[in-house]
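In the current project phase, the collection of sequences with tokenised folds has grown. One resulting record follows, to show the layout:
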Amino acid sequence: MSRPDTQARHWWQIPLVLGLLGVITVGGGAIASVTENDTPVETAADPTLAASVGSLETTAAPDGAAPATTAPSTTSTTTTTVPLPPSDQRTLEQLEVIGGDIAPKSVVHSGDGYFIANNMMYRHTMTLYDRDMNLVATIPDTVDLGQFGFDYEGEFQGAPVEAAFTSDGAYAYVSNYQMYGPGFGNPGDDSCAKGDWDQSFLYRVDVAQAEIDQVIQVGAVPKFVAVTPDDTTVLVTNWCSYDLSVIDTDSGEETRRIDIGRFPRGIAVTQDGSKAYIAVMGSTDIAVVSLDDYSVSWINGVGGSPRHVVLSPDDAHLYVTLNRDGRIAKVDTATGQVVAAVATGAAPRSMTIAEDGRALYVVNYNDDTVSKVTTADMVEVQEIAVGHHPIGITFDANESNVWVANYGGSINVLADR
């Protein structure tokens, strides 16, 4: 595990770095076009990274904090922070491009200033950053399963996909697409039929220590992860098991599996923790799981290949990315009806929502862009270029920054001011 003190990448340092090094290099190769683009292949160098950096050389980055006024005094200082306008009145701007030895499938904010990027089997790492965009730690995905109570000998590698934090930001639960090592020869893939695939594992990462401190067995090809608001339960969608793992956080064990259907993916949990909405990507439907009795009901016909879901702050509406249709649907959770939809770019994958619920930020995988959509009228008000194959996205409400994970080997940080 590497834990450098700082690796700052400030916009004003970039011209100097480019002048000294001549080029920025990140991983090499090409990503195959598959349903979820997770099948083990080499990742591509991000062709937009140098261009994005170049644009930052001539464009002043916005301030990292809102303007402040200070009362003149020789003994005390009073600072007043000017609030930002509502999110649907703000504009996205390029703030920073983070490179390095990464191939991030996702990036997730802890809620208190840390961000974890999950680099799949391409790098076998998780990278941890602080709010100043410094690399805090690189965490290998290698574990000794025997030391965690499983009947395996030796060390094994994972393939980190997605993450979810506990409410205090102390722990991150990370899914692994598959495991690498003796006994793991039938892992499943992006186009799997339901079958007897290898079971994989969920890691718990202690953020303060930057290390894996718990390993939990789940289903085949686990994808999305969600933690309930009371931190008692972790939910994991298992792509090739066609089901949902339910994990008790006190015991650190899976307590049940719930059949969902072909290719379950995104999860959104209500504020009161009573239900979870599951995007079933191999369908046009959303599963609604009661977290009281674990019964399943359905919202049918939302659109083609629903992948990611987020809830409005009041749980009144569910927003769904439709990967096949290239659209975002708005669903009334009381009626289960689609009340509006908007086209964004090609292959919208993940999205996140602003702190006030008035704007969505959506990655368009095949267009190398992020769309901003206003939720009241479901209108795309902005589309901004990012790195190659944007796939993951998260929002930092404290700074009003949007972090974008690009599969090609970079992270864009956008300021929404």
